[in-house]
Design brief:
Strand content: under 5%
Number of helices: 9
Order of helices and strands: HHHHHHHHH
Number of strands: 0
Distance between the termini: 51 Å
Shape: globular
Length: 246
């Protein structure tokens, strides 16, 4: 303690959907290229990176700056380095993906600074970052040149999470928006049709997302229940997607 105030401050995460974004892309990568001990480090690093960025973004958007959040972010930053450096040393191809995440993370920081973290663009950038971790997951056992290995992981993850952005908007902040309603319905219908054309397993994977987007629209559902339904859906996507990729 310093002057009666704790030196470190911690903001509890309130983005429940982020857990599926942490787990699913990396798991897809494991389904493609196999598991290695470095995947444990990758999961640890991603979790620490999320906590680190959450502290920094919270600090940026607060009018009264409390340095304790930066101290806490620094601790998580150390864990990030301890986790990611061995990955880069073992598979240097991953360095380029990590490098790509830096400007994307700065965009997220900009939205946090402007107190506009719920913006569609900010959500989209966050989804891209987490999907890139899926690419890294594949690269732990596969060269970057093997596009056919890592690109499906990125695309399948992105298609699901992009739909989730639209769906959650229609259920919470944009529940009265006709634009988001039709965008969500048409998008989910499109990915189911694309799935049917590419492989019926993909269609099956995205079908519950289409159903929940249409059936639950306009229903008075608590935010917690929206989250629980999406957790169940993400587990389904994880299982079916892993079967397809494996």
């Amino acid at each position: 303690m310093c002057g009666g105030v704790f030196l470190f401050k911690f903001k509890k995460p309130n983005q429940h959907g982020v857990w599926s974004m942490i787990i699913l892309p990396i798991a897809f990568g494991i389904a493609v290229s196999g598991f290695t001990f470095l995947h444990i480090l990758l999961y640890l690093g991603v979790l620490a990176a999320y906590f680190m960025s959450d502290q920094v973004f919270f600090y940026l958007k607060k009018r009264k700056k409390e340095i304790g959040y930066i101290y806490t972010a620094s601790l998580f930053g150390i864990i990030v380095l301890i986790s990611f450096i061995p990955i880069v040393l073992y598979k240097f191809d991953t360095f380029w993906i990590f490098l790509l995440m830096i400007p994307l993370s700065l965009i997220n920081a900009f939205f946090a600074k402007k107190k506009n973290e719920r913006a569609f663009t900010n959500d989209l950038i966050a989804v891209i970052i987490f999907c890139l971790f899926g690419v890294i997951s594949v690269l732990l056992n596969t060269p970057l040149s093997n596009i056919n290995a890592w690109l499906p992981v990125f695309i399948l993850s992105f298609m699901y999470f992009f739909g989730t952005i639209l769906y959650v908007k229609t259920m919470i902040r944009e529940k009265k928006s006709i634009k988001y309603k039709w965008s969500s319905w048409i998008y989910h219908l499109c990915i189911v049709i694309i799935g049917l054309i590419v492989n019926p397993i993909i269609m099956i994977m995205y079908l519950p997302s289409l159903i929940r987007a249409i059936v639950l629209y306009g229903k008075k559902i608590k935010i917690m229940h929206v989250g629980l339904i999406e957790i169940a859906n993400s587990i389904f996507v994880l299982i079916i997607g892993s079967i397809y990729l494996h």
